[in-house]
Amino acid sequence: MLKTIFGQIDFTLPRRKCSHCRRTFSIIPQPLKLLKLSPNSNVTPELRKVAILCGTSWPFRQAAEVLRNLASVELSPAHIQWLCSKQAVAAKAQFKEKHDSAYWPALIETMETLVEPLVEEAKRETSEKTSHSKEQAWSAKPVYIGIDGTFINAQPRKRFFEAKVGIVFTEQRIRVSQGRNLLLNKQYVGSCQSVSEFGQRLFCCATEMGVKKETQLIVLADGARWISQLAKTQYPQARLILDWWHLKKRVGETVDWLIHHGLGRKDATNWGRQLRDWLWRGKAVAALQSCRSLGQQLGLSPPADKSQTKLGQTSLQSFYLYLRNNLDSIVDYQTYRRKGYFISSVWVEKTIDLLICRRLKLRGQNWSRQGAENIVTFRQLILNDHWKSYWQQQKAS
User: Would you say residue 290 has pLDDT above 70?
Assistant: First the structure.
């Protein structure tokens, strides 16, 4: 049986039982005959399907070796890569036609029904009433959207481009083992193209998962500006939460920077402990004021933007900007955790591993943007359990 990182292909060897000795034995698998090249050396549909699956799961050279050992089929790594590229063009055209018909009407309806009422409500109600209404709004079980990105080595060498990933999921999960849970209701989205194209795919995926204008929605992010802008544009009704793990990590990096730039280890550690406590309870303004006061003591002025931060990403100035830019997405993590909400982007980090890293970030690999996009297209199909239905549609057409 051929086994991939995603699951198993239905190539179980047929078995028979001898009527005399009652022993069972395997025979030459009949389905593998479908993988043979046709007499005119053309690739059969079943062989194309399996070749693309192998090329999506492993490096093309290893995929060619798997086919050779599995069915004695000689396909070069370049041929497998070409099959992936050609089929991906057809698949993306099919998805684009499907998404375009649903994306723009749904987005326009979302903006019309949500943006104007939110603006009027903000002008009409006081801050206390607004905060009270938000607490009441999260009584229902929400839908989560996790968004993140990772960089891939590009061609030519020493260049990079960003792959953007998202996961739409609910709280339905089972415990696999101690400390390990499995989500039961989830869908993955990935793209190596622009933010707008990724946002369109993510919006359509969320709509297919049942996200509507009245759905309680939480967007988990790591503080990247493009994620915040995307969330505010497409999901104005959502609650944007800055991932607690990333926030705590930035505090630790800033403490290390302070130790090496004039502040004693004990003072820096105590300052970081106090800051984490404030942020855990949602006191972002107090944390921001503390950064400003400490910067003044060290002779640093708060920067107006990133271009004025010349001390590095882990500097106090950079952390000040990070807090200021994500002020509205820093919540009372203690309360959210106590009520059972997710406050970490651990699921989207796992999405990056499954969708991108296990195939596109292996040692020595360099990709064109289009080549990486082709692989992501099929890995998304497999992870979302749409692989069989996609090929059935291809056969029907």
Answer: yes
Exposed, middle or buried: residue 248 (CB in 10 Å: 0-12, 13-18, 19+)?
middle
Q: Residue 110's pLDDT is what?
A: 62
- Write down the pLDDT at residue 114: 52
Q: Are residues 357 and 367 in the same domain?
A: yes
Range of the domain at 111: 87-243+346-396
**Residue in this structure with the two tokens 């198993």, named with its chain if needed:** 8
Q: Are residues 153 and 282 in the same domain?
A: no
Q: Is the pLDDT of residue 282 over 50?
A: yes
What pTM value is reported for the model?
0.83
Q: Do 185 and 324 sit in the same domain of this protein?
A: no
Residues 164 and 277 in one domain: no
Residues 6 or more apart whose Cβ sits within 8 Å of residue 190: 163, 164, 165, 166, 198, 351, 355, 356, 376, 379, 380
Name residues whose C-beta falls within 8 Å of residue 107's C-beta, 6 or more positions apart in sequence: 203, 234
User: Do both 147 and 213 map to the same domain?
Assistant: yes
In this structure, is residue 118 part of a structural domain? yes
pLDDT tens for residues 225-251?
Answer: 999 999 988 898 899 999 999 999 999
Per the listing, tokens 């698998």 go with 29
